[in-house]
Amino acid sequence: MTADSIDRKSPWELYYGPNLGYIEEMYERFLRNPNDVDPAVKELFEKWGPPPSVSAGSSVNVNPPLKVTTDGSNSIKTIDPAYLKKIVNAGKLVRNIRTFGHLAADNDPLGLTPPPDTRLLEPSTFKLTDEDLEAIPASLIWEEAPETIGNGKQAIQHLKDVYMKSFGFEFAHIHEQDERLWLRRQAELVMSSKPMTAQERIGLLQRLIDVEQFETFIHRSFVGQKRFSIEGIDTLVPMLDEVVREVAHDGARHILMGMAHRGRLNVLTHVLGKPYAAIFAEFHHSANKDMAEGALGINTGWTGDVKYHLGAHRSVKEGETVETRITLANNPSHLEYVNPVVAGFARAAQDDRSKAGYPVSDFGSAAGVLIHGDAAFPGEGIVAETLNFKKLRGYESGGTIHIIGNNRLGFTTDSLDSRSTYYASDLAKGYEIPIVHVSADDPEACIAAVRMACEYRQKFHKDFLIDLIGYRRYGHNETDDPETTQPLVYKKVNSHAVIARLYAEKLKEKGFVTEEQVAALRKNGLAKLQAALDEVKGNDKNHKQPKIDDVGSKRRKKDIATGVSLKKLREINADLLKWPEGFKVNDKLERILTRRAGALDKGGKVDWGLAESLAFATILSDGTPIRLSGQDVERATFAFRNLVLHDPTNNATYSPMHTLPQAKASFALHNSPLAEASVLGFEYGYNVFSPETLVIWEAQYGDFANCAQVIVDQFITASRVKWRQQSGLIMLLPHGYEGNGPEHSSARLERYLQLAAEDNLTIVNMTSASQYFHLLRRQAAILNTEEARPLIVMSPKSLIRNASVASEPSELSEGSFKLVLEQPGLGKKADKVERLIFCTGKVAIDLEAGLELKEGESADAWDWLHIARVEQLYPFPKSDVEQIIARFPNVKEVLWVQEEPQNMGAWNYVEPRIRARVSDKTTVRYVGRPKRSSTATGFHNVHVIEQQRIISVALNRSTLNANSQGEK
């Protein structure tokens, strides 16, 4: 019998009795779900069909299976009834190697990881011998086995080499089969077929030497100064070089990077091109070599930041046509909070905002790269929040390349104490992100991992993670002694050769370089470093830190005309009330919207929602793109916006703002995930990268912005003076005391006022729809200019539908935003005014409601009182307040009235500013809630009593000059 004739016979002829019963059981599982059986068995069923039924009593001819010898020739072997069972077990072994081979991979430079249990990776566990594996054709257990691999033993050995040596691949958690198969094919076949050329290897060695010498040169030249060196994960730099090459080659015009401080200086100089001399100057001019992190002596900028927080830009050319700009984002010591900022950069770089409708995204035009810390990646929740952007319509960016710079320590904390997961990277599995673990001491494997990551991103537009496993040469910084907390680890570190030297030896052994060539590379690199230091010392004046500028006077004080003609407003309003033929709007909502049709006619009123829609529409007609995001922003938390309509019959959506004939720019509107920190960071990054775009983030409730405090503190309020980074971002924070308890009342106005300095913000608390209209248009007008500042808005809740805040149409067509509004009807007889009330926000409307004349009261009942609403709190409207005070010569007291507790709200901010503008004879008093630790009561009846007391005291003439104790 020939081998060919055996090949054509059914394998079921080899089995009978219990063995045939086993095959029938497998076939039944195959019929239910083909993927429930091993791939090798599935292939047999698909090729040969069902086995003969045992119950039918079929006779089975026993013929020997084909044995493939090591030289590839065929021979006949005596039949083994358990042959198919061996195939099944070999298939299980292959599956385990692919799934769990990473546990045995040799990618720990110091050997710190305890040996794992790898019995599931051994043939003996499945009762397989070498002879058994040699008898199995490789194609039965490895579908794509190359022709050079003939039998199962060879296949198993090759797969072990792939999955259990340099690389630790984790792909089994990827649900998309085409992605998983592509990744498997890349690992098993493609990576090994693309070795680095001799020229690439020598270039890689040169880069590793540059990285090493840069660190050791600074260490020797600036003794005792911190730099947070890269040593131990030196290969990160050539990996980033490779990312730049690959992504630029694929056509990306922008590469946006974010990383913490470890290794940042090395990345700045070697990847971003910051000159050695510029970095050395920052060390050379440190006023005190022992200063703590953040000290002024090592700052740059206005108030500046430490050198290992600063970012940079660089442009590189791929060939003659494509120019790629690399940006490393500035980042504070809140390690991972730069992640969403970079994600915002990337999406902004990809979006075409030049036409009406949603922006059109080109994911290939830009790529994000994030370098994480191994303790911070699982430890900081902002990482998970940012990973969640991966597939969200408003936030995805076509895949981010993540690299964990894994030095096995968080500050001084061992991994055992800093995470509950086996790997630092395990968080990424929940987001189906492919993971490759690779040793920083294996530079060629690191480059191969980067190439796989870039190809995966290019093909599938999804994230990829590389766990770069290394160590940390020094302590948390170079002044820190790590041996007190990790003595055994640093005993190994101190005797471990640096990566450049290890790789040089490897290349010398393979004949790629000689000892003389390596020595020349080191000599040339050292000469460049020394020349740069000599330049700094010899030209001291050229490299001194810039002076701190007086940024407070940068903003010009001028009114900006923001009115829009009624003719244009009416045209826009009519177009906003049109929807496609056949599109049905919710009946209740349709009635609400159609009431807006006459709002701009004589006698009409413009409410808050319409004022906002008209502002957005006119801004779009001016050619300024808008991006609005937050939880439920399409309809708004308080259901006043409704810019995306839903057809109740089929849930089709339609936004009139997207088909507006007047629009000349895009309008992006996205309901956000339930994550304030990452979303606000994303919007900040989007705005910084595209400063011409009006970017707005709305909190569901203003209180929820607390969850984004790091973004507010470290980026939004301070980036201008730390990094000269401009932003015109708007934060809409619903604020107002309406008896809804502690977490739904206060947007913490006091916090933003505390953070206001050096003309860094605009903070408002408005009381009319027209004011909101003009404010939005004013902010749009100053975008991408020196005037631009982040705008913090205490936006209303119940006032949205309060008739008192609705505006006459003429108030939108005329004028501009007013810093202070005076209560109509009061203050007409200036010499009779005894009490002057200043307030801001919703309490002004409560006061207005309390001014209604009671039965029997004369028209001059309120001549003793005047009320002024401070609509813009920062910058404080000094001249407006001074002019109002000066108009009333007989004022006995000035009250600041607020609904927040005394230690909150604006009182502590405005009190000295008001007191400085009144005479010594005028009393300045506070009326509001007493000091509290919680923002508001949770009992509605208590809230009502408190609110009534505030209004009663403020509007009661008998309380003139009452002392504050009696007032309470």
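Next protein, fold it too.
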Amino acid sequence: MKSIIRFFAFAVLFSIGQKGYSQDPNFQVYLSFGQSNMEGNAKIEPQDTVGIDDRFQVLEAVDCPEIGRKMGNWYKAVPPLCRCTTGLTPTDYFGKTMTANLPEYIKIGIINVAVGGCKIELFDKDKSEDYTATAPDWMKGMIKQYNGNPYQRLVDMARIAQKKGVIKGILVHQGESNTGDTLWTKKLKIVYDNLIKDLNLDPKKVPLLSGETVNEDQNGKCASMNKIIATLPQTIPNSYVISSSGCKAASDNLHFTADGYRELGKRYAQKMLSLLGYKFYNGKEFFRIHAPIGFDQLNSDVPAGKIESISYESQTVGAVRKATVYTPPGFDKKKKYPVLYLLHGIGGDEKEWLNGGSPQIILDNLYAEGKIEPMIVVMPNGRAMKDDSASGNIMSPDKIQAFAVFEKDLLHDLIPFIEKKYPIFKDREHRAIAGLSMGGGQSLNFGLGNLDKFAWVGAFSAAPNTKMPEELLPNPQEAKKKLKLLWISCGDDDGLIGNSRRTHDYLFKNDVPHIYYIEPGVHDFKVWKNGLYMFSQFLFKTVDQSTFPEYTILGEAAQTNIRNSKYPRILPDNKVVFKIKAPEASRLQIDLGRKYDMTRDESGLWTVTTDVINKGFNYYSLIIDGVAVADPASESFYGMGRIASGIEIPNKEGDFYDLKMVSHGNIVIKKYFSKVTNSWREIYVYTPPDYENGAEKFPVLYLLHGGGEDQRGWTAQGKVNLILDNLIAQKKAVPMIVVMLDGNIPGGGGLKGFNENVLKAFENELLTAVIPFAESNFRTAAGTKNRALAGLSMGGLQALYTGIKNTDMFSYLGVFSSGWWADNPALSDPQYEFMKNNATKINSNIRQLWISMGGREDIAFNNCKIMIGKFDQMGIKYKYSEYSGGHSWPVWRHDLFMFAPLLFQ
């Protein structure tokens, strides 16, 4: 009996000792240990001692009277951060980066215990004494400063730190002295496990970040150790390797320079910020874009809400039905609360969220952090039928139909019951609906279909029960006025992602503000829990819709990607993320007009996020060690005079070239022998819908590409077939044939060698080879009135020259992003002289001379403006169109979209 009393007395005293202080959850403490690169081997420079936020502190691990610090006390983190005379460390810029990019209410604390030259065995508490006994004298002096036991000093300091803050992570840099030791990861795990146990930490919430030794790209003497370090996550699940690639090395090739430590420290911080859920985005305020480690883990120190099961009478079903209700911590019946209706999937019921998603834990933790508004959460059974159990054939037609019937049950039975039983605000601004899978489809259907009832709508991995967008939201303008938040999220490997994508595409094109959140994952609770974590933080608050595009982890794979290639990926704000595996490369860049340097991780994966990229089609190249090549992950196109990659950026104004449910024409590729060039050549021909099924003859548009491209351009890059399919289906353009030829005449020299002889060669090819071939092989309507000629850039000059010289052949001319060169009078002056002398004939014969430009950023802008000024002086009639976008395919697609309806009317 006495032993039992003593046990309880000890337990009480231990509890008092553990809980007798108040931890600040916003004071994040990080332990760091290792050898010389963690203690700091580079000289501290003036820039390292300034600009340190008061929120960044160090807990001194040794007495340092020379700098006025005592062991066990907190100080502003002015270096040195290890011992009294050590140098700059990765922890300096880890802390600087963290405080610079976390909310101002968060503080960062560092405890740094490191010993130069030591093996990892020094920090194994069971082997430390034996290791120290055989250590060299110079190392023993450093160990002595930690009272002969660096591990215990780290633990003792950590316990002091726990009185004020919460340990959020462990940083290590060690391995040089263990190079080649294949057991190193297991030895480090022993240290990590001991720290977790001795400090009563949760390994799921406290990650280990381990930095590489000096990389082989810096001729690191211990670079081979990085292959062993790379395997650490296989031994410690919650561990992460920090790449040292590109971090500058000191002359000994063992240590880093000050610049190297600064960069390495930033990388530690970038990874930790990511694990905390924050988006690391240069030049922007940092904010959370996913749940942090441990967000769904029970924390006995935070107040808990209450879960109860309720029953209500359903007039819709004719039965008593059940629901699960969560009330927040400190629930007060005298106060009023908003409500979130949280729906389950096809195989679940009112308990599914509790069984798989731990919503009460997620919400309790968010309340403790002050991240969400107090709310009641109702989790009903969304299968509105008398036998609403998730048993038998859950896919049977009656059970599927019951999910649709639930809309009536929800609106007419459940909501009135909840509002009668609980103290609830009854207006739409205080009512939200969200769900997973089948429940995600219900949330979209019911929420968007009843905007007078719900102002907040969320769908996590919406299932195929989601209505088609036009039915789901027939009046986008109403949604824009009434919705506070529309959230759509899904895992990137979820087979149902197409449901979310089609809804997003419709919302995007109709300017309906929403968050389209794509994250790594499949169709499971890992994704849905993160969806609830993120979605709930927006509810019943003022939201800034301008930030919506920032909320995603992955964005969407580009439609120009090869098959299942996941990268490049397009973020909602039209930035692009590239990831390329190239372990043997020393430098990678992405060239999108501007060159972007990529960064390499420890596995040889190179990554970069671009600035905002122009909407529509863009050429790009991958530059590997200075050589420009096509990205094997993307479709390739002939452009810029070579094969290059292309990426299609979403364009809400690009509805006219979307693939739609209309009748489609065909693209035919034909070979012909040209007597002009004495060679076989090729044309691409678009024939309108149903061309093969009749005898009708059609007018012809001869359509020319630009410099550095060929006959494939208008089909592959220009989407000519889709543009005309849609125009013809809408009866905005007459059915026509489009002939696209190669404007690169052998010996022509391209634009640099452009002269009248080159233009004459093209004219000869078109008139004597291409047109006769087209008219003898396709059902073309005869006569000038049934021929049009248009081209872009170089092709614009070719169309202008040939069309003006042959107004008896063509009645319509289109000149896109072109114009006679102002700085080449030898070429231009004769053309202007010819037009001046033939102005009456040109105006009489040409029914439509249509000139377009991509705005001031178009490289042909000045030439075009000068040219049309001269046309005005001559009295040449024309129409001018300007569409912002520069000298690019999005502009030329729009040009064709505007020009084609004018033809053959």
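About the second fold: The chain has a mean pLDDT of 93.
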